[in-house]
Amino acid sequence: MTDRSPRLDDMNDRSREVFRRVVEGYLETGAPVGSRTLTRHMSEKVSAATIRNTMQDLEHMGLLGSPHVSAGRMPTQLGLRMFVDGLLEVGDLEADDRRRIDQSMADSEGDVTSLLDRVGHALSGITHGASLVLTPKHEAPIKHIEFVSLSPERALVVLVFADGHVENRIFTPPAGQTPSSMREAANFLNALAGGRTLRELATVISREIAARRQEIDTLAAELVESGLATWVDQGEQGERLIVRGRGNLIGEAGAEVDLERIRSLFDDLERKRDIAQFLDLAEEGDGVRIFIGSENKLFSLSGSSLVVSPYMNADRKIIGAVGVIGPTRLNYGRIVPIVDYTAQLVGKLLSDRA
Which residues contact 237 (CB under 8 A, 6 or more apart)? Predict the structure, then answer.
């Protein structure tokens, strides 16, 4: 493996073609692809030995692997990610797939739950995978919010709305968070939550962060100008105020008070940044996204992928999502337009009902 992630630009034309054909062959059959198979399909006439050498180079880059020594090659998770991001050709939605999706939503009567249940059933049948349908986000004011740590990489947010509705959402928390820091974040949010939606809470937190930032800048300005302190990475997430010659501050009560105030403000700023990140993670999601293998924290079963797209209301706000879960050798070129079209159609139908 190299010190940095490989890129398509690192490959010559032959390496790129071998890589593309191995991945496409694997996605079609689910089996490793051998050098002799590739010799029959390459655009230039090359020997099986030359292709084997190219495959070894791609294996060294971490893009291909083999189940055992004598087998052909298959893409690694890194290889699949590179293929999906740089070489995947997304086809047009097939007419039969469009017809079946349209039929599942032809009867728009009944409640939203029934409609989304039909959507999930249709997606599962069309793609032969498991479907994922997240119901519309609730926009009522928050009554209570709680964060529960499930593991270092998974947490649960419990949202209790003023109208009695309750939602549980799983997310990946910012690195380094502890159960106590999550309780502190929840307590802070609950103190502000009265009558506010999640989106409004995020706006309030942003204002708090800006206010803390301004207080720090004002208090630090005199210390910096006097040469007693200097900024490092000012304005960045990892910014620090380095104090020089602490001995010079002894006896200068005003400077010491300012310093303690600045330290307190920095701590408060970091807490509010973490809380803002919690809210962002509970709200985020845009466009069709593909999660391969362990990239997918919620469905990180061995050999699984998730293709998911949010759907929006008439105000272009994300209110839910639809997706397909299946093996990593999904036909991504076909699945992506299916998920994209379904999400757009669900968003339109729900907007029309509003």
Answer: 273
